Records
---
Amino acid sequence: MLELKNVNKKYTTKGGVVVNALDDVSMYFEDKGMVFVLGKSGSGKSTLLNVIGGLDRYDSGEIIIKDRSSTTFKGSDFDSYRNTFIGFIFQEYNILEEFSVKKNIGLALELQGKNADDVIINKILEAVDMQGLGDRKPNTLSGGQKQRVAIARALVKNPEIIMADEPTGALDSNTGKQVFDTLKKLSKEKLVVIVSHDRDFAEKYADRIIELADGKVISDVKKTAEIGKKINEDVSVISDSILAIKKGAKLEVKDLDAINKFLETHNEDVFITANKKINNDIKTVANIEGGDNFSFKNTKDNEFNKKVYKKDDFKLIRSKLPFKHSFKIGASSLKVKPVRLIFTILLASIAFAFFGLSDTIGQFSRVNTAVDVLQNESVTTAAITKITNHNYDGYSYEETGSITVSEVNALKLKFPDSNFKEISTNANFSIQFSNCIVDQNSFNMQNYYSYSTRGMVGFTNSEFENSDLKMLYGTYPSSANEIALSRFVASTFVDYGYIDPSGNEYEISNISEMVGKNIGDNEHIISGIVDTGIISSIYDSLKVESIERDYNLAGQFEGLKQYSYHNLLFVNSDFVISNAPDSLINYSEVNGLRINETNFERNVNYIKEYNQSDAGNIIFIDENKTSLTNNEVIIPLYIVMSYIDFTEFAGMESSFNYDSLEHGNISFDEYMYYIANNSYQLDLNQLGLFYTFVENNKTIIMSNINETIIKYYYYDFNNRYAQEISGEFNVVGFSKNLYSNCYSYCDFIVTQNNYDSFVGETSYGFVLGSLPSSKGELLDFIKESYKFTPEGNNTIRFGLINTQVTMLDEFYSMIKIMAKVFFYIGLGFAVFSALLMLNFISTSIAYKKREIGILRAIGARSNDVFGIFFNESFLIASINTFIAIIFSIVACYFLNDMMKTELNYNANFLFFGIRQIVLIFGISVFTAFIASLLPVKKIAAKKPIDAIKGR
């Protein structure tokens, strides 16, 4: 069955001495019988057992098992060979302390893929006198009981070869005899190879004795029977010198004659005894078994009954360690170095939590957060405008601009249920509260109300009825001279009082009292108050002046006022159409106007087309002129001051006094001196006087303006240059529409044709409509608002400019940076934790080295060893994942809460979910795998005997 051919094995001692453990050893083993291998310590007997059992590797030679050469073995074939054919019994028992007796035995079956049936295991336990002890743990057993467990484990899988290394070395003689008796019975059907130092036991039990010295076979003898001579059925002569009489025999005369003849041929005293002990001793000394005596003679090769095997006789069973055992062995390692384990798990959990947070932040969705905040704040109105994404030398930014009529119509088609309404932000038609409230000092100190209305919106009666708005008091404007105020705008007068155009002051106790009042001039009457919704009480704190001003809250509220119905004037639809097309021309537009003269340039802020109704507010240089032609322009009066040469008046002597100025009793020169010495500042109360001076001194003013030219310019934003592309404009007059903010928002007036060439299509500041009520539809709506489409060298989108959504856009880049920071922090922690885990796994492997060797000895493969420690790593990874998830959830909660508190933002920025859980688990398992791979691979590559011996 088993043959060794010229097998050699060397090893080097710690002192560097090379030892020949096996020196050109060749031998053959039959299918059954008990073979003892004897020799002194260091003779090579244990090495021989380990080599033929596959626990150790030979250096050269060949081992043949059932006609299959081991030189053809691949990978873990030696493991499978042990699992299939060999049952090992060790001197140190080598049973697993974590498992009960029953599970130790059943493990050998399970490695073969068989069911560890209680009936089979109990039968084996009974065979080794261990019945009823199956549930005991090894540490409660005696040495003899442990050895019997080892024998039972070897026998349970019914191996063809049993190998025992000093199986009685740790046992008393009586227990040792029981062990050998058991093995002797087994040798009747199996090959039993025993390494022993006890020659007496060998000569008593062995069928063959092989003796080694210095790695060489010095003796190989086989037990040979010498058949005794029977006198009759009851009396026989053994080995010519021992007379044996069967128990209970009755001797006849002829038997006595035979005995007398025996006595005559032996000149020695003869003892006849029935003492059992003496008889057994005689049998032992004389090698008597049955009626024959045995002696050991040199083993001859031709005496072996060599069997010829078929290919199917050699089928290896590849082991598969059950998960429950693999997991249990791996989990038991967690008890090793618990402080180090806790520290490793804690650090790893922090690292993986950073990864989870990094991905959570990286997956920050403006869409989801926008939906969240809009629903939490019960926002039902959508403000949308065109947002352009400018790209310049790899740098990009978004800019809000006006939205054209055709673009508004396209939005209405895309979202028909939103009922979008155009909002004109024409600054020339708004309420300037500084002119019409009583308590102006307090008003100038507050942060709640605005200094002017944002713009205007015009509804037809049917449109208003179908909108989400309703009238609180009065009626909706039906003519050009009627306007309606929002609840918010009307509340300004309740808090600060009202001044009519004639200067009369009123206390307003209820917003309904504003119905019928005039605003700004006598031409516009308040016809009603519109309910634009309740403004949240969280903004009430802005009404009170505070040193610790909440700028985030103020910013949110300013955005709310800017892009909602709250701060608009409601007018007749025809009125807004005729007054809406006033468009800002600035650096973000393609075409523009620029006043150009030597050492002076000024950009035009607004332009508007000439309307005959504007004639009353225009000072024409030519008094006979009543209209404009192409390439003529009316410029604002504040521009006039930019071209008057005040230097000749600065520092001059004058009899100027303020009273004279108020009553117009001063000369033009004296007035210019006043302006020159007061840094061109005009008191609004004196504008009428300034109009008069301009009217009376047009020629003087024009001579100061001199050769001022206003030209077309094409402004290329991407390349940042202005290029003149067509003719110039002639200044033919000055507009008198000066307001408190006229230095920023006064108009240049041109003909309709010129206006169209600059502005093109009529446009509006933004549109207002209804947001979808369902979460799904709202999600789609928000997604659409973030979709960019190409427009020239840039891209555009029609985005929500709700204050909460706008804040998201501002935080977006910051959050992306945070994601990177968290990622790199997590990466650093992960590398360090992986090193700690590698150290822990290495320690765990060192602690489990002997158990690994035992498993390999009974048939487990390297893959099973990998499984044990990957289960351990997986368990650690699972703990890491659980703790990291808790850390991440808590961190997300606190970060969300902090943002809500600090930014007054009623939505979650971070959404920790399934994706992050999977990511953390994946990274945790991957880290554990990498940390385990090298040390596990190293231990799995070890020879089983080295692992058992702790080498």
---
Amino acid sequence: MDTLIQDLRYGIRTLIKNPGFTFVSVLTLALGLGANTAIFSLTDQILLRRLPVEKPEELVVLRSPGPKSGRVWSDGDSSASLSYPLYKELVEKNNIFSGLLARFAIPLSVSGEGQTERADGELVSGNYFEVLGVRPAIGRVFTSEDDRIPGAGQVVVLSHSYWTRRFGNDTGILNKTLTVNGSVMTVVGVARAGFDGVQVGQTPDIFIPISMKAQMTPNWDGLNDHKDYWLAIIGRLKPGLSPAQAEEAFAPIYRQIQELELAFNKFSPETQQRFLDRKMLLSPGSRGRPILESAQKEPLLVLMGMVGLVLLIACANVANLLMARGAARQREIAIRMAVGAGRLRLVRQFLVESLTLSVMGGAVGLLVGWWTIGALVGAIPDSIGAIGLSKSLDVRLMLFTISLSIVTGLLFGLLPAIKATRLNLEATLREQGSSVSGGLSQVRFRKGLVVSQVVLTAVLLVGAGLFARSLNNLKRLDLGLRPEHLVTFSISPDLNGYSPKNTIALFDQLHQSLATQPGVEAVSEAVYPPFTDTDASSNITVEGYQAQQDEDMNVGQNWIGQGYFSTMGIPLISGRQFGAADTASSPQVAIINESMARRYFENRNPLGLKFMFGAGDRNRPDIEIVGVVKDSKHGTVRDKGGPFVYLPYSQFKTAGRITFYVRTRQELGSTAGLLRGELQRLDSNLPIYDMKTLERQIDDSLFNDKFLTLLSLAFALLAALLASLGLYGVMAYTVTRRNREIGIRMALGATSGGVSWLILREVVILAIIGLVVGLPAAYALGRFTESLLFGVKVGDPIVFVTAGLLLTGATLLGGYLPARKAAGIDPLVALRCE
């Protein structure tokens, strides 16, 4: 221990005496370690971290893929959407699980203590907290009695974060009432700190018993509908039972349940058999419902790979610096060995210095990572379902960075230490002074490190180029509409107790009021706002169209307001838009897009023809087509398109919420006040939410692509800079080592240009070797990112040529100063020094 402390003190003194070397090394490592810390933080929170509940390894997510008949509500995995009657059957016949909980996320309008605000809620079964093993911070959590009688469970449990944010940790909130979606609810408890639900990215503010479903989702009950799939179910396995064993044991029970469910569905014989053959799959649930995980797993793994390459480049850079220092300290090493120091003792000394450097780099890297985490999390829009991610450094993150620092110190320190202590003792001691020397093998090793840096940088540059091209393709895509000068906001009158009839009346009033405001050019509405990844669809029966057996007759749908297409800039091809005459009492009408017209009305004029939603066994099509519009993107920018039908919101029987679109040339700030003022004049208790420009909404929908592109570009440019610095260090060392040779060449008539080329030629050779290895490697690794790209192939020649040119420029830049220094050597001075 004493010798280790002695090595540490000596290493620190040595680093202090070489501030330039120490600063460059620590900064290089800090950038690499900081980037890894930041990306690992996101990866840990989204992909790795378990739920803060009792024995999370016993939890499983229930999924049943296969045909469904009816309405499916999904936030990313429709196979995990099950009906409430099915949940009750599973609970009743269960002999596999120690408990089955159910949940469904909903928006809330909460009134209390003189203010109304929008909040995030979660309908949960009465055993929700019991199954998870989550206890209250104050008060109590739900019991089965709270969920027994529909409409009778008028109690709520607050999340700890909402209690802190909204009520300032006031324990007096217990037994007080809040008006939630028009219903008076009593606060009976607060969940313990740290528990934010069972789905990463969703942080419910208020938990409500499922028995209050009809009251919390006005105009939609769903508790008794076997064909309404909206519920997510998580089970806790009995101790000692694996998911595979539970699946096998539960299969016959689920088959019986499916046979009962078949009576509520109508399928063709083939589909009926597929329905009966559906399995209940049990996916690991220790990390909760993996919705955000599924969406972000591939991008995060790609980014982890990229920051790993950046760290390897940083290690190669510091290893090069250590090699140079080792060469400069050869006389010191020889003297220490001559007076009795063993080689292992010296290697340990160098490793202690390396580890000291890496720990210092890790400490600064934590600061870099902390700042980067805050910037990344702060930039994530709420609309992608990643709410509640932490910006802070926790113990796991610190342990990760410390561990990575130690591994990094060993990685870049071991070989330079071994090479520095492998020398000819007698020859080294005969040298005068402490001039820089070193063998040919050391030079080759350092050049090998530079080549490896070029290879890794080539991979990063190509990856960044592919993502940049993909993002550019998405931004230049024809969306089929004009997003400029459109302001959008949403309201949910149903959450404030409005009936569908009163909701539509409010929509009409607000539409007319906004249309007359100065600066407003056009106003319209949509129930399902574009570019929010929100979709609705249904099977249809088309007049005069004979569907093939088991043909997919599913079409997208949206309910919209008057003048929607002119407001959004979607061209009308034929027919008319919806008008004031299209009301709830008038004949049903619809407008279809080009894709629907081509598929179902080939060689026919669709205007005046009819269709209906669902099967037409007993009913006749009754919705008349009055217009055809150009195809436009709806759910996301990446939408592939397809048949789509628009209907007037005035004929939407369960109208409850809507998004307004206001075309104006005024700035958002001035427009926002006007819009809020008009709504407040009509209903001061109705909150506005998601107010932004449509361009901002589209930009938010492209967040994943922007996130990947910007970070990969940053990592690639950082790698190129580090590679350039590494090359500079090697070539500067080479020039110093070849001073006598260059002096002789110039004395014999060599020109400055010839000497410069002598050095640059080595640079070019190193760059060529790196590119020859790096570009094929980039192509091979790029195959793993193909699913993340849009409109660009992995072997895109523009990307590869650009990456090659950038990397060549970076290497030439790194070799330019050493070449210039070599050209400026005075032969007399060089020869005299020898």
---
Amino acid sequence: MTQPTLRLSALAVLLSTALLHGAALAAGDGAQASRFYDDALKRFEKQDYDGAAIQLRNALKIDKNQLAVHLLLGKTLLAQGDVANAEFEFNESLRLGVNRVEVALPLAQTFVAQGRQAQVFSDTRVALDGLPTDARYQMLLLRASADLDLVHTDDALAELQAARTLSPNDPAAWIAEIPVRVRSGQFREAQAAADQALRLAPGNADALYQQATIAHVRGQLDAALAGYGAALKADPGHVEARVARAGLLIDLGRDKPAGADLDELNHLAPIDPRANYLRAVLAQRAGDAAGAKSAFTAVTEFLDPVPIEFLRYRVQVLIVEGLSHYGLGELEKAKPYLDMAWRQQQDSPLAKLLAQIALSNKDSGGAADLLETYLRGHPGDSQALLMLASIHLQQGRYAKATALMQQALQAKDDPSYHAVLGMSLLRDGRADQGAAQLEQAFAKDPHQAYAGLSLVTLYLQNGLPAKALGVANQMAKANPDNAGVLVVLGQTKAANADTAGARAAFEKAVKLAPNLIQAQYGLAEIEMRGRDFAAADKRLRGLLRNDPRNPDLLLQLATLNELWGRIPQAQQFVESAADASSLTQTRANFALVAWRLHHGQADKALDAAKVLLGKTPEDVTALQAYGGAQRANGDVAGARSTLTQAARRAGFDVDALCDIADEQLLVGDVSGAVYSLDKALQARPDYLPARARMARVDLLQGRLDEAAQRAQAVVKDAPSRAVGYDLLAEIARHRGQAREAIDALRKAHAVENSTRTLLHLFDALAHQPDAGPAVELGQSWLRSHPKDTAVMKVIGDAMARAGNLAQARRQYEAVIALDPGDIETVNNLANVLLLQKDPGALAVAEKALAAAPGNVMVIDTAGWAALAAGQRDRAVQLLRDARLRAPTNAEIHYHLASALAATGQASEARRELATALQNAKGAAWTDQARALQASLK
């Protein structure tokens, strides 16, 4: 049975009736959209990209959320060279839920084309993990090219060697090695790579061209000309060889044959800026000022609209653009292009041109820096020496000295130095030393509010509210009329359960600073704790009238409405808070990701997490949030990569490292979890949560004895907690000791009488030959906990597995009556109705789809239900969407094949069936799939 893991708000389900009516009206349009897509696919395969793009946009006019259409449009735009819009379409595909394997390579290609080479390595969407062999090979070649642009030549060579292990007889990796070796001055190795490429592919134009570049760089100009000629003989349309030969001929003063090559380039690449620049050089040499200006202008008019970031690693093009502006006397326009090129070739004479531009702007210091850098590599350049000497005659040079806080303290024992040093130590993970420095700063000067506030926060985080209150009282005594200090005092008194004292502190702060919103928050929180929601609402809405886009205020209102039971209103406030946040404000973004994950909105959670990570890409908790959203959307490889980054950036924060380890285990990254937990235990060897998690890691690695030793130690040190017994149960299960596992889980439930421990025990009992005791356990629990929907659901699942569909249906319907927003259960109910051949299955499936339109299992159920109801075109559209989101799910392939066969698309149906049966692994639908396959032959 298809069982998604999402949960959404009740509001989405309540709206589903209207959405269903719209879906019915759109059925005809869906068929038209499907025909547009099919025609576009045929055009794309024939390389009719213009026609394909038209048809795909026609399809999107009907329904802008068609995943397959966005994906194919991205590939079409990439083929047309429209890389920015191609990236947009690939991102739309990802937003709609496409499996990243489908877009990783073309998306990475758009990064490189836009000058974002580093993103090829940092963006988890294009990570190598999980890619099939051919895509992995092509990605390695692309990564090598990006490494070369970034001057990471060793990394580039490693990428190419890895590529060759995947496809040892393909010449592309050897061809790609040549420019890497040339960049490093390894000409012998470059020639060896060229020889090997030509052995694998004699007469290959790319290999011949790259071989010629070796001779060109080494000054072997006759050999270079011959090599470019050989490449052009093999492929007369080879633009790079044609441009290179024309440039070399101009350098040799052979203008006529150079002009012939440029004439040929008029046909091959009429707007190539390098060719136009070479035409300008020839015109200048011939004294044709108008012709030179025209050619320079052609270069600038073509390249100026291109964002300079797109050209970042195209040094030839940067130089051509910069020199063209320079030739036109447009020095300020020339500067950014020449500067970007110079930063990649700092020993080039471009430094002198840039210095002249700096001097024209009266920036003598910048000019001197350029020249000094250049002269380190060219100490005898008389022109550069003269320019620098002139600058020194006009202006002096100076150097700035910087001291560390420890050095400052050696000279003067200043409390502010202790405060800054304390915060530095805290951020470095040395909490005890940092706290000591903060305490020293505060003891020397209680007016050091920064140190005092840091101490209060630290004590509260460590569960020491009494110590926090002591510091807060000292701060208030030293600063009796400081409203901000009074807010801290109120918050600390509240943490110490002194409600009256907290209210008094907040009210005094309000009198001193009526506009201090944190004091009003404090009073509202006291009202919420007292369940006086109306009073808190009145207070906060009064503030909102004066500051309608304050993210913190909007979040307070979200919290209030959630406590009040007004879930739709709470969601609106969370979304509004995130929308109102600036680029430096992230609290509301974190809240939005958490809200959407909690309420089952996985696709929207991923969108929110991307926005969050874009704001703070190095933040550990932001990386965790993004990894969680990736996992919720089925992107396991991406989540692993993201969590690895989080663990590296977490320092020795034991709580963060344990959380990260949990998330790594959820995505099957055992080695990553070991790394995280080892770091935590290095910091705190006795830390119980890390010890318990490490036992689970031992278990996952098959080290049962080590896991058992750790588990027994945890039970000994924490006998009143369930965690040790849970570990013993897991170990027993791995040893095949079902009875011992159940006994341990009974002990866990006895010491921690909770839904969590009951569900663990229920699961163990349900997998016994007789599931009756599990059901009895669950029903007994429900007699004392009649609204525990989690237990109702597992009873329903057990009934469904046993084939008792009527009982399963009753359980699911009871859950939905209590929690209409439980989309997992709505979807499960739809599956039960399908098995019962109940015509109401489609309506229920559509309700789930309306609430969770990005969940692949919900989409699959809706598509299967549509097929059962005779809505074949809609079934194909939905099941194609599901297949793109989960390409390894065999059952979805079978469902799509069935729908395709029903619509007469036998060829595609056969392909889907072949994939389904290849990965069926004894699935219940295998016989039906084989029968369908036989009928299509």
---
Amino acid sequence: MSSQSSVKRIFSGSAWGILAKILDAAAKFVTIPLLVGYYGKVDYGLIALAFSLNAYLRLMDLGMNVGSVRFFSMWVAKEEWEKIQKVSSSSIVFYGSIGLINALIFFLMADYGRYFFNLADHQLPIYRWMMYILSASAIFNWLSNVVIQLLSAKDELGYVNRVTVLSSILNFVVALLAITFEWPLTLYFFFYILSTLVPIPFNVHRLRVYPLSLVQLLRPKWDGKAFKEIIGYSMAIFVMGIFQLTANELRPILLAKYASGMDVLTDYRVIQTIAMLILSFGGIFLQVLLPSASKIYAENNHPKLEKMVIEATKYISVFLCLIVFLLILNASDILLLYMGEDYQYLAIWMIIWLLTVLLSMHNTPVASLVLSSGKTKQLVYSSAAACIISLPITVIFAPTLNVGAAVIGYFVYMIIQIGFFYVYYIPKILKLNNSKIFFGSFFPSVLGAFIAFVVGHYVGHWLNIPEGIISILVKSSIYGIVYFAFQLAFVIKKADINYLKEHLLKKKGQNIEEND
């Protein structure tokens, strides 16, 4: 496959992934106020609880998702189709077993939810049916991981994300139908989950890009020897993931237990929807970077790895800072238009969450290198320490700060994690220049965004524009002009973009002349 084709596929994956996440966020942005208004703030909190439980059980992946993409990518580059066949078939057994266990857990949770969460009597039957629906869909969701891993290794993320766009549109349609035809909450939840399963048959069909049949790739057949290579690598990711996922996904569950009521989960869901847009972009970048970083790491070229991390961090930061500070600038106005003036008090928590996400996501290129190298032992310790320190914060402050307790807890967790990366992991383990990464790649974009934020805020205040859509448009326009002027003058360089195209996205076996 030519280098031009490779670049096109990977940039297509990023572009379609971003579009899918934007559409998904836009659908939630439009439908959540309508759903909260129709079902009520307290009952809608059940959906946030169900999603959080489902997300937390992703721990059962055991890190296999990252490990499989890494090894599948390397085997595709070497055309080791027999290894791919054996591990793919074993993965079907592995994920199928986890799906069954997951289904059983949801089934049991249906009857014991009253002992774990602060549920009102009228919410118990609704909660029970939600757990049954999640139980029925669990096996299909888990098995679909194998298909996406295989497609990721073949640089088919563009197709995967195009199909995800269809799912986002269906989610939006389901919400509108639920409100229009006055569906009960359980019926809405059923069709919502059903719409998330729609991409599966399309992705399965796309596996024809492999020189192996669907039967060869997806037939359940255990091969412990072949699978051992991935599971050995993945277990370290799993242990680290326990603490990362616990620190993130256990927060709303703790709110359901210790906060003043289930309506707090609706507050959490409102600002989570906005923050998750940025987290989704980071996930896309990691998804795209991991296969490429794995191939570059296999070349054992340290200068190239360092330059890849520095340049990728720079341009990911340019994009993330643009979006994050734009949302921060308009936080109060967005909440006013989104949910009404009763929700504007969430602006401060939304801002803190967005800054936390920015701090986390700018580190995506380094994370892709860590996952490619397999040097994750020290990260397990830092994740454990950060998790143990941050979770009690949510529990202690939940009765008084409500959703703010979860936001502060996550902020503390991320400060510890990123601090460990820059103080120890990047310079000592990865042997990279931490100053170049932070001050050379990340900080310039933050500085430009902060300057644009200040100008946009004070000009908007000086013009005395009423809150609402006009305020957002005026401040955003001023912010955008100042931000892009700064980035074009001090940050963005054509030579760097050419480097990313020619070196970061180069596939195995392509000897492209380096221009650095």
